[in-house]
Amino acid sequence: MNFGDFVQTVDYIICGDYVITMNEKLDVIRNGAVAVKGEKIIDVGGSDEIMKKYFSGNLIEGKDRIVMPGLINTHTHAAMVYFRGLADDMPLKDWLERHIWPAENRWLSPEFVFDATKLACLEMLRGGVTAYNDMYFFGESVAASTKEIGMRAVIGAGIVDFPTKTGNSADDYIRNAERFISNWKGDDLIIPCIAPHSAYACSPETLKKIKETAERLDVPLSIHLAETEWEVGEIISKYAKRPVEHLDAIGFLDKNVLAAHCVWVDDNEIEFLARKNVGVSHCIESNLKLASGIAPVPKMLSSGIKVSFGTDGAASNNDLSILSEMSTAAKVHKTFSGDPTVIDAKTALLMATKWGADALGLGDRIGSIEKGKLADIISLDFKKPHLMPMYDVYSHIVYSAMESDVEDVMVNGRLLVNSGRLISADEDEILRKASEWGKKITG
Length: 443
Ligand SMILES: [Zn+2]
Prior knowledge:
The chain is of the alpha/beta class. The chain is 39% helix and 23% strand. The strands form four sheets. Strands 2, 3, 4, 6, 7, 16, 17, 18 and 19 form a nine-stranded mixed sheet that branches.
């Protein structure tokens, strides 16, 4: 028997000068490595130790690399990338009613959503995002497109009370959602969910039916909540309650709900969201661009809510960058609270990884680099002018790193981006289609 008999063969060994684990102790391993077999991380440690225990034909070198868990975008409308920059610099109501809704009415189709979602996935993967939560129409197209490119997503079948191209009534949308869920439940990458748009676009009766359906089919829920001051006034005038109280009164809120925005929540509502373990997606850049307000994130964090980051749709952001959300949120909340210690770099990265996974209900499977977790891993090249010298790796990731620093991206043990290029689909083809659709949309 020789030494080789003790060496286990694995599919990948990914090395890094720094391996950021985001585990319970927030261990950072200098000269570390991760062993991946099938879809799972089977070991993580010092690279000497990992090299002794494992062999792989796919060894990813670690010089000048930061290896870390994939970033998680907990709220977006992926296919809206095709409306990026179509209408900017106007109030939310004009933006929606005069530009976005007419454009959606005219252009949305299964093909549009399939092609647009591909572009969104390409953009997110190239920016180090490995999982996202979507709320839109034509969920089958969102799921098929995401699955084809190899990304992980929780995909919400969108529900409103009014007719759109995908249905005539809430009952129609709920039936569609049930079909969508039965088609995708149990998939290794796609997790179906139900996504009522908001408490102002769905009646209490609709929301109750949705809640019953989600419980019966055991799927998560996501919803826009308290995004604008207008919404708070609207819900108070209709139901004599603030939005969080209203959703609670109809039994909607619990740990299976992911609430996007939560800009206009008061102290009682924050305490309630914390007690009920409701997931919160903070979409700072969209809120800033539409002048919706600044969510009280430091208060939410001190109440124990594990806030995560969402980009919202690219039509109101205008990109799907979680690196940028981290940096913006950390800076805006320091100024807004007058306290430069709030949302420090470690907290920002927790929000973008581990807490994002928790918000999606996947905290036991993704969000950190640990033995037994699914291999959703990215690496950044830090031999760049804006990342030198290196004193604090968290600081560099949150305040200095850019999408162009992302080198490799792995989802579920499959390498999708290598040396900054997508390898699971044809990038040029995705960009060509985006340009063709753009020409059609502008006539
Ligand atoms: Zn949204």
